[in-house]
């Protein structure tokens, strides 16, 4: 077919000018194209269904893993808190705290001497950096868990 496809009247005229045999060939060609397009449509429909099933299966597995990670993290945090509480209650832990506090006192006294000499240190010494690292680790863990859930 030649001419402007938008011009319907020209399209009708082109069919009027065609012989019956040419019209039959055209009809056969259009029928074959229709059949091919229907097969493609069916194949695409089946592919979409299969991909949908695969997506739902994968998404369900992801949710199960996230749930498992959350449960394990909660159990780990509970154990960590329990260990921390037990360490505070045991008599040996007071000695440990005493050692740490004496180390901190030594560090503070050294810091005081250095400040007298005109040097200023940033940070709060040994205890502050450990607390800061603990806080940063906790924030990272929370943001990681939050990103997994969303």
Automatic annotation (TrEMBL):
Pfam families linked: DUF4600
InterPro entries referenced in this protein's UniProt entry, alphabetically: DUF4600
Protein name (Swiss-Prot/TrEMBL): Uncharacterized protein
Organism: Oryzias sinensis (Chinese medaka)
Stretches with biased composition (Basic and acidic residues): 103-120
Region feature (Disordered): 76-133
